[in-house]
Write the structure tokens for this entry.
Amino acid sequence: MPPHEIAPPPRPETRVLLTGAAGGVGSVLRDGLAGRYATFRMADRADLGLARPGEEVSVGDIRDMAWCEAITRDIDCAVHLAAQPVEAPWPGILGPNIEGCYNLFEAARLNGVRRVIFASSNHAVGFHRTDRVLDRTSPTRPDSRYGLSKVFGEALGRMYADKYGLEVACLRIGSMQPTPQDRRQLATWLSPGDLVRMVAGLIDAERFHFITPYGSSHSSTPFWTNDDIHEVAFDIRDSSDAYRDADLPALPDDLSRRFVGGTFCTAEFTGDPDRID
Ligand code: 15L
């Protein structure tokens, strides 16, 4: 059995780009989506090693517009992961997550790429309370400069969908880990297999305009629901409930437990938690 059991693609002729292919999420997708599509182009600033069978490989910087134009050429669907992946001082966010994200969407438009799947994050909605269940109508509430950059990417995607007709999915990834690492992740955990199946579902979907699905496996204590997203039928098979009785650490304080973004919310926090409804 392949590492992540998954149905064959309805359109194997699809040409797919994966930016950030050397990262944690990217490596899982590189393995899990291998062999599915006519073109499978890996792009990263880090070493990607030799191209594997059926792959193309390109090393460059997402801040470089010429490179972005080169990697999006002859592509139907760009899966855009390349980014600073956690909170950082502003200059570390600005280059890859703002300028780089713009470059990728603009290069995709110039090259006639039909669909972009943008790796957004739960930190785009991190300052929502954990005692509510979010859906696609919930407003963004970034919990960090990193979360703010994901809101930027989502707004950029919305503009490219509405103005230029790109199909855009912003997958608000929870916590992609082999297993949940703490009690918060009983709500946010996304198994590697479900990640692969979700992204494959987004690549293979017949059509959508702009969607912001949440990326997590099943949970009986969810922070969000995808019930209202009818365009894409996700094949989610794993559940964090299998780890509910495990000896997982709780987050360190009340504040980080109160909000979806956990410790991303408490870092640098000088606000008044009771004013955040
Ligand atoms: C993210 O967006 C980060 O990229 C990842 O490192 C984790 O912090 C994850 O969110 C999470 O919230 O667990």
